[in-house]
Structure formats: structure tokens, C-alpha cells
């Protein structure tokens, strides 16, 4: 029974993280400036990724005998979730990629925390590990876009000089 409670809480948290990530990237898409529209494909890919991961987590919950309504209820969240929510809902001026990197780092903290939780079923631990690697890959794409953007800016400055 205790393992089911732990499993439920972990799944609730990760489902909530992905819901917030989806909402965050949708909000960022709506606020892109003209010179940031090259990020549209990246943000849409992250939205699709979170939808897929969220469905996988919900399916895992069903396999554990839980109902979807139990998994979409409020989780324990904690500091990492607060950071994701604050990063994506912030109106403070910053570059979209800065917000993405901060949000992805907070999501990785959550995955690391869940991965280290005692009492998880092996199938859930394997799914969490797989999704964590996918989030790491997403964060690497952000770094790639940051390098691309800074290289593009340097080229524009050189052309003006």
C-alpha cells in the first residue's frame, strides 16, 4: 500500500510538471518576438514531447491500478515545480531560451528526485529514467539553439562593421 501511495505521488508530480511545461511553452510561443520565431519549431517539439511523456505516465498509472483522475490531482510538487511554474509564468524581461533552460533544469531536478525515491516499481523507475534522458536531450537542444543564436548575432554584427 505504501508503494502505491509513493507511486501515485510521483506520477502526480510528473504529470503536473508536464502540464505546466506544456502551458509554459505555449505561453512562450505566444510571446515570441519577430527575431525569435526561429524558436517556434523547438517549442512545438517540446510541447509534443511533454504530451507524449504525460500520456506515458498516465498509462503507467493505469497499469499500476490507478485512475487518470487520481493522477491529475494535485501532487506534492515541491521547490522544483515552483521553479518551473515561476519561470514560465514570469513577465520579467529575459530571453526565451533562458526561461527554457531554467525550466528544463527544474524538470530534471524533479526527475532526479523521483528516480531516487524508494519503493518505486521497477517499470516506473525505468520509464522515469528514460524520460529523464529525453529531457536531458531537450536541454541540449536549447544549448544548441543558444550557440546558433549567438553565432548568428556575431555574424550580423560583423556584417554591420
Automatic annotation (TrEMBL):
InterPro entries: Ferritin-like
Protein name from the UniProt record: DUF2383 domain-containing protein
